[in-house]
Amino acid sequence: MQNGHGVSKHTIAVLVENKFGVLSRVAGLFSARGYNIESLSVGETLDATVSRMTLVVRGDEFVLEQVVKQLHKLIDVIKVTDLTRENHVERELVLMRVNAEVQHRTEILRTADIFRAKVVDVTPTTFTLEVTGDESKLNAIIELLKPMGIQELVRTGKVAIARGSKSARRRSEEPLGKSADAQRRRRDVESSQDPRVTGFVD
Amino acid sequence: MKMSGARIVLESLKREGVDVMFGLPGGAVLPLYDALYDFPGPLRHVLVRQEAAAGHAAEGYARVTGKVGVCVVTSGPAATNLVTALQDAYMDSMPIVAFTGQVPTHLIGNDAFQEADNVGITRPCTKHNYLVKDTKDITLVIREAFHIAATGRPGPVHIDLPKDVLMKQADFEYPGNLHLRSYNPTYEGHPGQVKKAAKAMMRARRAVLYVGGGVIGADASKELQALAELTRIPVTTTLMGLGAFPSDHALSLGMLGMHGGYAPNMAVYNADCLIAVGARFDDRVTGKVDQFAPQAEIIHIDVDPSSISKNIKVHVPIVGDARRVLAQLVEAVRQEGVGQTPSLVREAREQWLRQLGQWQQKHPFRYDWDDELIKPQYVVEEISNLTKGEAIIVTGVGQHQMWAAQHYRFRHPRHWLTSGGLGTMGYGLPAAIGAQVGRPDRLVVLVDGDGSFVMSSQEMATIVENQLPVKVVVINNGGHGMVRQWQDIIYGGRFHSIDLSASPDFVKLAEAYGAVGIRASKPNEVVPALEKAFAIPGPVLVDVMVDRDEFCFPMVPAGGANKDMLLERPNKDVKAKAAKSQTGF
């Protein structure tokens, strides 16, 4: 039922049991169904038995619906959220080693400064920079530094989190689980009326 | 109490109510067989002759009993042999738990003898799988596995057991209540959606119930019949759904799809409301997707949310257990008031039923009689007559499977076993073993093809060893009939690799295994041969030499629209068109 129209990029957060083999279950699902993952990052949550994956997937609404449903179908998946549908913050981190010949050193440092990048290693001929930001910011600094010569570059893949008070609540009092979702949604609606809860922009 | 991991496995199986398992021993799984040696049952072990058969037998057992089927095989080649059965069970939603042996944990990843990455291989063809790394985890894993296999959309669960895990000692304490935070299937239909569905059904003029294997898995036949009779909506079943609705019922349209009837396919094409229950809009059912129920408001009831709107956009999705949702629907329709249908709608519905009746009469499943050559359809018809629709029918895959589906008059759920989703040739004989073990009181008839049968004919030994009174009817056309049919209709008669005339003499083969063999070569020999077979208390094989040139109709060439089904052997022009429109597979 893929009609090819309305293809867009989605950021999906997946809470999974922190068990061996889970990553390959998720990755296998994508390859078996012919979906593409643009980026994927995994890490533990505050609860050591739960990991959180951030997936970036491209597809139309039918593909996305299937991706979410198929993810849910995996026994080890606890919760799937399409963050693209809600207000959220996305970040990615890049480490890159840039040629730093004498005539370029100040320019690289100035560029780093503009992008609030950190210099994490210096040698007589190179700088290693650490930059975080959303995709467009990272692409921009990479484009600017390319002319000096980027020797090596590594990106973490996107991580994302919903804005507002949701995550804090979930951590403190909510039981995890697919059945708890409805209850949680109700509470979210209530909390959005709370005047103390405001989103922030950095 | 401390005991070995192997003993813990057996004790756990006992707690899960398992009384029979199908298996084949080998190096890595030997501790389990050692524990079986003096295990105070009741736990019967049926020794099969090839590992895939253990899986198919577990499927057969699960289908007829409604319980979880269990199979045990060893590591490496045994586990890879089992993979076909796991995928088969996955596609047809059969609840089985499969155990495989594994090399000791310290050798895993070492390319040890008979090692394979079992869980890596079975991951995409099971509902869930486990590699047990610690003896003390065995009980919880087995508890979870049975729960996952049997609940929600049922399916196969695989447990990989390294040899040292089976040998080490641990305390045995079986877990009671199970809570899986990441697995909570929805059973109750959403009341708002149910109401919406009921309303849609009430205002429909040309409604059809399209029913799949999910109704059988959920034991929802009674509720289905209640709904159909209350609303007077006719029922068509998929291949997997045969038996969910009695075929002699006035509202029964029979099977739809690629080799389905004219009436059900036309009914779906012309319907203004399609109620899919426990069916998944498989390509063999829908044909060309945009020509499937193009005018209908589609209601889809399924326990698996990912089945909904996967192939076809659904207007009213209801996630839930077929039995409960159908019961809810009956209630909702009652509340809407059946009697209050406007007379115009009522008239239109009567007209619809009349139209369907006409289609059924005009184009029933049919074949031409021949005095000299046995028509395969006739064989199935006579099996149906002689068993009065009460037998458990098992099939392989191919033309004979479709003829059995078309011409047997099914009356009960859980009496029809066939490999629908995966289309596994060789499924028949082992599945019949499982069925007969599960229902020793019932007549089990395997309708197999000569191509399918030889893919697992070694299991004749299992049947004879256990004196399982399975009646094997080989529809012997001396070739791969379905492939031949496709090569004729779609590939311009360029026949290749379809001739099986070098097959063994099946009567002698049966006798070599210690079973009774009977042959029928003329139409007038069919009934006496079947009667004789059904009268013998032990295993019998009937080799029926049928017309080699018979094709299976109706047929929708793959990728074509169901409304354009071929009802008879096509002429040149139609063949050319079929070959051209060959966009499916």
Structure description:
The complex is a heterodimer of chains A (202) and B (585). Chain A is of the alpha+beta class and 202 residues long. Chain A has two domains: 8-85, ACT domain (Alpha-Beta Plaits, 2-Layer Sandwich); 89-155, Alpha-Beta Plaits. Helices cover 33% and strands 34% of the residues of chain A. Chain A has six helices and nine strands; from the N terminus they run E-H-E-E-H-E-E-H-E-E-H-E-E-H-H. In chain A, the strands form two sheets. In chain A, strands 5, 6, 7, 8 and 9 form a five-stranded antiparallel beta sheet that branches. In chain A, strands 2-3-1-4 form a four-stranded antiparallel beta sheet, with helices on one face. Chain A starts with 7 loop residues before the first strand and ends in a 10-residue tail after the last helix. The relative contact order of chain A is 0.16. The model of chain A is unreliable at 168-174 and 182-202 (pLDDT under 50). Chain B has 585 residues and is of the alpha/beta class. Chain B has three domains: 2-171, Thiamin diphosphate (ThDP)-binding fold, Pyr/PP domains (Rossmann fold, 3-Layer(aba) Sandwich), CATH 3.40.50; 191-362, 3-Layer(aba) Sandwich (Rossmann fold), CATH 3.40.50; 376-553, Thiamin diphosphate (ThDP)-binding fold, Pyr/PP domains (Rossmann fold, 3-Layer(aba) Sandwich), CATH 3.40.50.970. Chain B is 39% helix and 16% strand. Chain B is built from 23 helices and 20 strands. Chain B has a six-stranded parallel beta sheet with strand order 3-2-4-5-7-6, sandwiched between helices. Chain B has a six-stranded parallel beta sheet with strand order 11-10-9-12-13-14, with helices on both faces. Chain B has a six-stranded parallel beta sheet with strand order 16-15-17-18-20-19, with helices on both faces. In chain B, helix 22 (523-535) links the parallel strand 19 (516-520) and strand 20. In chain B, helix 1 (5-15) crosses helix 2, helix 11 runs antiparallel to helix 14 and helix 15 (376-387) runs parallel beside helix 22 (523-535). The radius of gyration of chain B is 24 Å and the shape is globular. Classes of the chains: A alpha+beta (202), B alpha/beta (585). The A-B interface holds A 1, 16-17, 20-21, 24-25, 28, 32, 62, 65-66, 69-70, 72-73, 75-78, 175-179 and B 119-120, 123-124, 127-128, 131, 148, 180-184, 289, 304-306, 308-313.
